[in-house]
Amino acid sequence: MADRLTIDPVDFASALIRRPSVTPLEAGVLDLLQARLEEIGFACRRMPFSEDGTAPVDNLYARIGTRGPVFMFAGHVDVVPVGDADAWSEDPFSGSVRDGVLFGRGASDMKGAIASFVAAAQRFIDRHGPETGSICLLITGDEEGPAVNGTRKMLEALAEDGETFDACITGEPTNPQSLGEMVKIGRRGSLNVTLTALGRQGHTGYPHLADNAAHRLVDMLKALTELELDQGSDHFQASTLAVSTIDIGNSATNVIPGEAQAVFNIRFNDLHDSAALIEMLRETLDKAAGGADRYRMKVAVSGESFLTPPGELSEILMAACEDVVGRAPELSTTGGTSDSRFIKDYCPVVDFGLVGKTMHQVDEQVATEDVEALSRIYEGVLTRFFLPEAPSD
Prior knowledge:
Elements: H1 2-5, H2 9-17, H3 29-40, E1 43-46, E2 60-64, E3 70-76, E4 97-98, E5 101-103, H4 107-128, E6 134-140, H5 151-160, E7 167-170, E8 182-184, E9 186-187, E10 189-198, E11 202-203, H6 213-225, E12 240-247, E13 255-256, E14 259-268, H7 274-289, E15 295-303, E16 306-307, H8 312-325, E17 330-332, H9 340-343, E18 349-351, E19 365-367, H10 368-386
Parallel strand pairs: 3-6, 3-7, 7-18, 8-17
Antiparallel strand pairs: 1-2, 2-6, 4-5, 5-19, 9-16, 10-14, 10-15, 11-13, 12-14
Helix pairs in contact: 2-4, 4-10, 6-7, 8-10
């Protein structure tokens, strides 16, 4: 039976890629994943969620085992659009393998990691049985999109059902150039602000009769960009503020604008939370604008910063990497955010997956040997987590 069920991680990753699950489409990818997990012995539960009458986003929770400890793997099967399909050297959803390279949208981010973990879990269960503890997978179809109908809602529903977790790896592509370089033990928070300076429209020949919103916006942005948010912390680089767009929408050269808008993003470390940052922004902008009534500010918080301090989970993963690729990865908090920002409220979590240098790009790809090696690393993590006294392979 074990031979019949043996999953090749590269073949399985290729099969997952062939399902074109561009957010929020499921496209059969969860059906395929569920079928393989059920063959291994996992109990699977589909968890669709929707918001404001939109079409539901499908998600999958799978678990094998009835007792603790509980190890969770988290990931997403949704992928970003392919862009210009004609620019690809391979069909973006062919999952083709050429010269030791697996091509396709989601190869790196992150169907390759999902396939690697499923293959690793199958081998671990075949070797040690399903009752050393419990293994579960939390797989969303809403990570590359708004991220409102996926991981967060799944965790809330599972907590209501009494599910608990002891450790988690999220399979995001964390390695810059080669497998085993980097583990993410935390992520910066992200705060997006749409800032609208308010004035009074008028004729450029009579500026004293108008109130130029563009000038006010320039003063406000100057004050913001001169802020030093911090100088970094023990595990994080300094927080940053970056203006992403400025838009006045004025096609006439002789009209002073009554409104001017800019959008900026703050990536912040563990020295801040979003509430304190918003208060600091308001104080800075009130002063620069000449009063709170001279601007509008719309804020969206993508996530708070978080840190899983170096400890048992990162040590297990580092040791497993060293066993397979011969080196221990760097512990980092750089880069963007991930769904670990939701998981951190339920258990220790780190991010570790494949090489990410082609994620979201044309010709997204991963080396097949990396997919196979990642599966061995994940198996080593499971072995060290559930059987800490067992000798490593």
